[in-house]
Write the structure tokens for this entry.
Amino acid sequence: MNGGRVNAVLPAAFAGLGLDRPRLVGVVNVTPDSFSDGGRFLDPAAAVDQGRRLVGEGADMLDIGGESTRPGAAETQAEEQIRRVLPVIEGLADCGAPLSIDTRSAVVMKATVAAGASVVNDISALAYDPGALDTVAALGGPVILMHMRGDPATMREKPHYDDVVGEVTAELADRIAACEGA
């Protein structure tokens, strides 16, 4: 780190997408209580249609989630997440855009990558599920690490930062190091 900044060499591509320009990620939440769509795509057919619409409108990648991670949300068990997202991932496998799975669960990561997702997107930076880091390392694909303190049910309870940019950067740098170590 240098003055709160991470010195990093960016790859030429991520999930097969060149990084020569900004990329758009379409979000398809397959949850009854999504903060972004109010549960409109809980039905797999509706979710697949929405994903195809987003790609048609210019989305370069689709992020599929089966667990609400809005503030205050309760945890969704892995089996339920898989039930929600597997038919959507299978239905979008040929949509022409890479698919990412938005989950904190190693079991969901493994099942959905086997079904066609090529990217893991974890809001806990692979820290929530003790098996997530090893699972993603074994899968060998790209990962998106997000920052969060606590979990969705608790993340709004007294979040405190003395230096938000420095602390988030340091915490993500620690998670990057953990990934590289795995």
In short: Strands lie at 13-14, 17-18, 25-29, 61-65, 99-102, 119-122, 143-145. The two ends are 21 Å apart (CA to CA). The longest helix spans residues 164-181.
